[in-house]
Design brief:
The longest helix has 15 residues. The protein starts with a strand and ends with a helix. It has 2 domains: about 140 residues, Aminopeptidase; about 130 residues, Aminopeptidase. The chain is an alpha+beta fold and about 375 residues long. It contains 12 helices and 16 strands. Belongs to the FemABX family. This is Methicillin resistance protein.
Length: about 375
């Protein structure tokens, strides 16, 4: 029997997420406040006994000049993805509800892992001239249920999409991420899992006098100066400072320790900075920034290790370094960042990716053409 869909309060939504070990930071109510260009709604799945059994943050973006919306559930919704009646009981009621809200297309990112590669497997793939992409390398482990879920989505009419940017309609989250498993591991074991270069760099930073401190709202401008420099160096379009100020205010109003800021100082200079977000037992290294100056004192390794230690103290089951490139050629300027993350001794993780469902095929096609022209 299909579940009933309805709008729920922020309090109900937050309580549902808090009762789970993990949910994406993009599936908490406050994330809607971070995205003022989108209209946010907390959505609840209600069973026959009136219990809330699933929740999702839906972001609605209007199509130019029309009262029709792209409905987006980033890294969500938080439902029973293993349910045998996933289509009939969970997803079809969601599509029906979103259509009544004016959605012409629905985009979601099932929080379902497809496969994993150990740090050793990723290093071997980078060294292998035949491996042009991560998916060309043999995975260390597979999740058979994820392939079954993908098959069911296709049969329903969902279309898998490649991730894009995050501005406007080109909403997209990384399909490939790098994570360090913490569950059941003492900090000493996590430290031993770092590669030799990482351990050496952490010692070098300590010897050079690098100090990593937690910052506050007033330090976001120092973070932003480094972030703007990083954007120019790494060739990406930076978000404006008010975005990070809004993120800090919104997330920490919901939970005073939801978002943290870390800064690595050396002899009066701020050399690197990063934001960290926590939801339940999942901790994300969210945004990072650094200067090209004084790289020899290794501020980035020192800052990451401090964040990993603090995440462990918080009881994290996983420390998530977020997106990685899946392109392994030397010409890819993001390969250096992948090598840096591999040094943590964690694992590359491929999620099921993002999926679209056109509720109005004509408008969905028009959106595709609009994005192609942009």
């Amino acid at each position: 029997m299909p579940l009933r869909l309805q709008s729920i309060s922020r309090e109900q939504h937050l309580a549902f997420v808090a009762a789970r070990a993990s949910a994406s930071h993009m599936q908490v109510p406050s994330w809607g406040d971070v995205k003022p260009d989108w209209r946010a709604e907390s959505l609840g799945w209600i069973d026959e006994e009136g219990r809330l059994v699933g929740a999702g943050l839906v972001l609605f973006r209007p199509l130019p000049k029309l009262k029709k919306y792209l409905a987006y559930l980033p890294e969500g919704p938080v439902i029973d993805w293993d349910a045998p009646d996933l289509a009939e009981r969970w997803l079809e009621p969601m599509l029906g509800y979103l259509k009544t809200r004016g959605a012409f297309s629905v985009k979601m990112g099932p929080p379902v892992v497809l496969r994993r590669w150990s740090a050793e497997a990723v290093k071997a793939a980078i060294a292998d001239p035949a491996a042009l992409r991560l998916r060309d390398a043999e995975a260390t482990s597979y999740e058979p249920r994820a392939f079954d879920i993908a098959d069911r989505l296709r049969r329903m009419g969902w279309q898998q999409t490649e991730p894009g940017g995050e501005d406007g309609f080109a909403a997209g989250q990384p399909r490939y991420v790098f994570q360090v498993p913490f569950a059941g591991r003492p900090l000493e074991d996590i430290h031993r899992g770092l590669n030799q270069q990482w351990r050496r760099n952490i010692k070098k930073a300590e010897k050079a006098g690098v100090k990593v401190v937690r910052g506050g709202y007033e330090d976001l401008s120092a973070f932003y100066d480094l972030y703007a420099e990083t954007a120019e160096r790494d060739r990406f379009l930076p978000r404006p400072l008010p975005y990070f100020q809004r993120m800090w205010s919104a997330l920490n109003a919901e939970d005073p320790d939801r978002m943290r800021l870390y800064l690595a100082h050396h002899e009066g200079d701020v050399l690197s900075a990063a934001t960290m977000i926590t939801v339940g037992e999942h901790v994300w290294y969210s945004y990072g920034a650094s200067t090209s100056r004084k790289r020899e004192v290794q501020p980035n390794n020192a800052m990451q290790w401090r964040m990993m230690c603090d995440a462990h103290d918080l009881g994290a089951a996983v420390y998530d370094l977020r997106g990685i490139t899946d392109t392994l050629q030397d010409s890819n300027h993001l390969l250096g960042l992948l090598r840096f993350k591999v040094g943590t001794g964690g694992q590359a993780v491929e999620y099921l990716g993002e999926w679209d469902f056109p509720l109005n095929r004509l408008l969905h096609k028009a959106l595709d053409l609009y994005m192609a022209r942009r």
